[in-house]
Amino acid sequence: MRKTSIxxxxxxxxIILLGSISSKDLLAQDITLDPPVIDSISVDILPxxxxxxxxxxxxxxxxxYNTDSSGFIVRDVYPLGGFSNPDTIYxxxxxxxxxxTSNPIEDIQGFGLDAFTYVNGQFINGxxxxxxxxxxxxxxxxxxxxxxxxxxxWNTYYDDEATSGTxxxxxxxxxxxxxxxxxxxxxxxxxxxxxxxxxxxYTFRVRAIAEDFTSxxxxxxxxxxxxxxPSPAEFTTLSTNSNFDNSIFINxxxxxxxxxxxxxxxxxxxxxxxxxxxxxxxxxxxxTDFVGTGDVRYYYIETQDxxxxxxxxxxxxxxxxxxxxxxxxxxxxxxxxxxxxxxxxFLHRIADGQESVFDVNAPIQYNDFDxxxxxxxxxxxxxxxxxxxxxxxQLISNPVRVIIKDELKWPNAIIxxxxxxxxxxxxxxxxxxxxxxxxxxxxxxGQLLFESNNIENGWDGTYKGNYVLPGGYLYVATFKFExxxxxxxxxxxxxxx
Length: 497
Hints:
Blueprint: H1 2-20, H2 23-27, E1 38-45, E2 51-57, E3 71-76, E4 88-89, E5 93-98, E6 110-119, E7 122-134, E8 138-144, E9 149-154, E10 171-177, E11 180-186, E12 190-193, E13 200-210, E14 213-216, E15 220-224, E16 234-240, E17 246-251, E18 257-265, E19 273-278, E20 285-289, E21 298-305, E22 311-313, E23 317-318, E24 322-326, E25 331-335, E26 343-351, E27 354-360, E28 364-368, E29 380-389, E30 394-396, E31 400-403, E32 407-409, E33 413-415, E34 428-430, E35 436-442, E36 448-452, E37 462-463, E38 466-467, E39 471-480, E40 487-496
Parallel strand pairs: 1-14, 16-30, 33-40
Antiparallel strand pairs: 1-2, 2-5, 3-4, 3-6, 6-7, 8-9, 9-12, 10-11, 10-13, 13-14, 13-15, 16-17, 17-20, 18-19, 18-21, 21-22, 21-23, 24-25, 25-28, 26-27, 26-29, 29-30, 29-31, 32-34, 35-36, 35-39, 37-38, 39-40
């Protein structure tokens, strides 16, 4: 207990003497021990956020001295960081802690040691030994995920105050993970570790090995991992316009896809050529294939991951080509179908601004009788076919326009005595019945054989109850549709027995 009290009193005396003893008084004493000179420095970040700075120097031999009243007092370890609490140190290193709100390595600068040596209770010497060294700060400058390569860089060891001609020291570089330990040497302030273990967190340090001095950097960590494998790119929409050019929309993983190629062909099994190629995937992928014919086109996508190691392929899709034929009693619509799986088909019709949708099945052939029974203010009727594949790709055919006008179509022959439509000469009605109608039949001498004002009443090839001779007969039809001008149609009908 008495010994402890003496130590406490002695340390208080040292603190008082530090403020009262001048450098001149200290230098006047006989120097029996040199002041400590730093030969190593290392900085760590503790789990609680504190920074720990460890200084080291050559050990001293205190044999023959009273260690209760001999040792070193270290006051300043960081030039701009203030003073540490004075303490008596006998070991060959000193550890200092800084609170979590200060960062002793925020700036790169030189470290020195302000220490007083005292022996047997008397101050012997005081000196500041500035090494003109710098603390080392290492950082991950770049990362190549495909090669699992970490590019490190750090500041040079010597500061601007170093003696002219000072040679930069070699560096030891360390990479340590739970399952890996690597050490390398570097002659400049950068280094690359390649082929690191995937999905492991590495801690990197740099140690400068100068003459009579080492400086170890603060650790920096990095999680090493290769990029994931993208899903195959997918078509979202394939739309064909009236010129048979195709607009293609694609969904791709832009963050994981390193290369993408779209292939096209007019044949389902071979002859595919490159339509478009992308080395960097844009956020929105839309492209056009200028076809310009009514040919069906086939497409598929090839993608590679960011490391260009694995190729992935989409499903193949094909365009839909819709055609329409006017059969006078109906509109016939036909199209090819999706050839690579199941799909649903919907035929869209727009007439007089109203859209109607019809479910259709493959093979696609739909006869639209209903449209000819409608009274249309606009003769233009538009059709298009839409399909949704089992992979949710939307296929849209080229649009087709059919012009439906008031019209009469006339046969060119009848069979006398046939009681079907082939035995009666009268027009086929397209769309609506004329508001005025007159039909006359003449023989080659101009004799009137038949006349009717009823479009449903046709000529059966007789005159006064007897069938006329086989041959050609002249007809003259005069008719007028509502809202149109009067028309006259002349022609020849052949009577066959």
